[in-house]
What does this fold into?
Amino acid sequence: MLIGLTGGIGSGKTTVSSELAARGAVVVDADLIARQVVEPGGRAFDAVVERFGQGVVAPDGGLDRGAVAKIVFSDEDARASLNAITHPAIRQVMAEQAAQALGRGDTVVLDIPLLDSSARARFGLDAVVVVDAPVEVAVARLVGQRGFDEADARARVAAQITRQERCSLADFVVDNGGNREQLGEEIDRLWSWIVGLVSQKGDRGSV
Ligand code: ATP
It folds into this structure.
């Protein structure tokens, strides 16, 4: 069973995916892999250095992420070529990790912050789960618990697709507008739904 998990910034994706991991799912984290592919030895490191030059290599030999960010911030072509190098590498590593876990019979959760309508087919997802929280709640959590500046948090939320657009992609919506206890109940509901899907798929597979 391959499940795509998404949600707006500050919606609670990481909290939900770690609870699913605690229940036995294997979580493949796009953000983590995005950082790993540009580490030395990572799949996109050499190509990024070739494209942007030795100026983006920090004294310790790793990528100077600040230097890269500075270049791509004001240069759309540079940003597009960075994405053209890193995105396929990220997708490849995610697909490999997912295939390995699926091969062991695990339930796999792909944690994809920017899941769009094409992701279902691209990753061969069995289901899409959206973690949803009102904008004001997400902003308050980002400011109160994650140290974001309020204007920055609002700008990041505004740069993403709307809640409505995101929820229209979902097979299951986790409501994270409440407190942690209520989220726990939502996760129980989600896990029961996933277990049901797994057993349906198993029944189909054995026919
Ligand atoms: P990002 O998009 O930045 O990766 P995220 O969607 O992964 O964010 P989390 O990091 O899981 O979101 O949650 C944002 C913050 O809100 C965290 O500090 C988390 O502990 C907290 N949080 C999540 N759900 C709740 C809740 N129901 N009640 C209170 N705090 C919550």
About this structure: Residues 96 and 102 are 10 Å apart (CA to CA). The chain has ten helices and five strands. Residues 7, 9-15, 113, 141, 145-146, 176, 179-180, 183 surround adenosine-5'-triphosphate (CB under 6 Å).
